[in-house]
Amino acid sequence: MNAVTEEILSPLVFTDNAARKVKELIDEEGSPDLKLRVFVSGGGCSGFQYGFTFEETVNEDDTQVQKDSVTLLIDPMSLQYLVGAEIDYQDSLQGSQFVIRNPNATTTCGCGSSFSA
To answer: Phi/psi zone of residue 62: left (φ > 0), alpha (ψ -120 to 50 degrees), beta?
Structure first.
């Protein structure tokens, strides 16, 4: 499958920087079966908040996005809020963190970890 086809089929953008950082974290853990789960839950200062966790288990209804040797997991409820979003990793003066640029968010908070749709 070529890059254009993969991009069209993927529900979101998982950047090279993010995939590289996830791979680095998985390598540090020494558990190659780990996958990064990104999810949306209620709360935060804007109504919803983003979360990240490492898991080995893939649920039957998870959407999987693969980049290089890294797998990103998204549950169906979270997917509806994340379609079209970009998951990136930034290393800046303010610190290092995963960043979600979400076109579905109508407002976001200053910390960038919460939003409303």
So the answer is: beta
The answer for 41, left when phi > 0, alpha when psi is -120 to 50, beta otherwise, is beta
Query: Would the pTM count as exceeding 0.85?
Result: no
Tell me how far apart the alpha carbons of residues 28 and 56 are, in angstroms, rounded to a whole number: 15
- Is the Cβ–Cβ distance between 38 and 89 less than 8 Å? no
Strand partners, 50: 40
DSSP H helices, 3-111, are 3-9, 16-29, 76-82
54, 70 contact by CB (below 8 A): no
pLDDT in tens, the chain (117 residues): 444 334 446 789 999 999 999 999 999 999 999 999 999 987 766 678 889 999 999 999 999 999 989 999 999 999 998 999 999 999 887 788 888 888 877 655 554 554 445
Q: Which residues pair with 42 in a beta bridge?
A: 48
Q: Residue 87 and residue 110: Cα distance in Å, rounded?
A: 17
